[in-house]
Amino acid sequence: MQLDVNRQNGVIIIRPHLRRIDASVATEFKSKVIDLIAAGDEKIVINLSDVDFIDSSGLGVLVLLLRKLGPDGKIRLCKVNESVRSIFELTRLDEVFDIHKTVEGAVEALLAS
Amino acid sequence: MDEMCYTFPAKLKYLRSAAKVSREVCREIDESCADKNFLRDVELCVSEAFTNALKYGQSGKTDSPISLYFQIFSNKLIIKVKDKGKGFNLENLPELDLRSLPIHGYGLYIIRSKMDEVQYVKNIEGNFLTMTKYFKQK
Q1: B16 is in which domain, residue-wise?
Q2: Which residue is closest to A54 within chain B, CA to CA?
Q3: What is the pLDDT of residue A41?
Q4: Which of B106, B114, B115 to mutate to test the interface with A (most CBs of A within 10 A)?
Q5: In contact, B110 and B122? CB cutoff 8 Å
Q6: Which residue of A4, A63, A99, A106 shows the fewest CB atoms closer than 10 Å?
Q7: pLDDT tier for residue B34 given thresholds of 50, 70 and 90
Q8: Mutate to test the interface with B, among A28, A55, A81, A83 (most CBs of B within 10 A)
Q9: CATH, residue B30
Q10: Helix, coil or strand: residue B133
Q11: Which strand (E) or helix (H) includes residue B117?
């Protein structure tokens, strides 16, 4: 599983090269992102532009990251497609995650927080 | 009624094959009854059900396979997911408290939300999660 990792003004931008985040990749995805956080990168943007399918395992990883990074907004999501967004809405996670249309918007929001 | 059955080894690496099969089965249904959203919901619920069967369905003694049965009726699709593990009691599962930001438990919540009817039966043949989704009215 490949992740694109870029750093911008102290924010780490993670783009999983995955069309699907399901149980078959969730554990590896979680481990890779947690390794990055453990290395000191505590403000993260997850760019979901490649993802068109997410299941409960994928949601569980994102919630775990949100809980790990705390409620004060150190994680932002961006470029969430319609299909994935509908699952966020169903589970009301759209109310707890700050979701942005662009990477730039997500980074700016993090830096302003 | 047309019925199709597919059996997979109870391994995570077959999750995507199970999801793919559900897409292919839905393509047998008239598009006016099963649109893009219908296909997406079925694929998601089959994926969730297969993952649940792996999680709760294994007895630890054997690698019992997981079977998917698709029954296409004139007005609905019924999907049965069978495993032979210890299973769980659907009625006794607590309601998911979304406000508490749970890490687990979204799978059955999604299935219950996306499907019109959900049943879980344990009998001598195994555990059957039965999901029913009605077609759109033409």
Answers
A1: 2-134
A2: B44
A3: 65
A4: B106
A5: no
A6: A4
A7: confident
A8: A55
A9: 3.30.565.10
A10: strand
A11: strand B117-123
Q: What pLDDT score was predicted for residue B62?
A: 56
Mean pLDDT, all residues of chain A:
91
pLDDT at A24 over 90: yes
Question: A3-112 sits in which CATH class?
Answer: alpha beta
Nearest to B98 by CA among A62, A48, A90, A65: A90
Q: Where are the domains of chain A?
A: 3-112
Sequence-separated (6 or more) residues with CB below 8 Å from residue A74: A42, A43, A44, A110, A113
Looking at the structure of chain B, the number of domains it has is 1
The 3-state DSSP composition of chain B as helix, strand, coil percent (nearest 5) reads: 35, 30, 35
Dist. CA B96–CA B106, nearest whole Å: 7
Total Cβ atoms within 10 A of residue B34: 21
Residues 6+ apart with CB under 8 A from A107: A8, A9, A11, A13, A45, A76
B51 and A56 in contact by Cβ < 8 A?
yes
On whether any CB of chain A is under 8 Å from the CB of B39, the answer is no
Helix, strand, or coil (residue B121): strand
**Highest mean pLDDT: which range of A59-68, B60-69, B91-100:** A59-68
Q: Which DSSP string corresponds to A56-74?
A: HHHHHHHHHHHHHH-TTT-
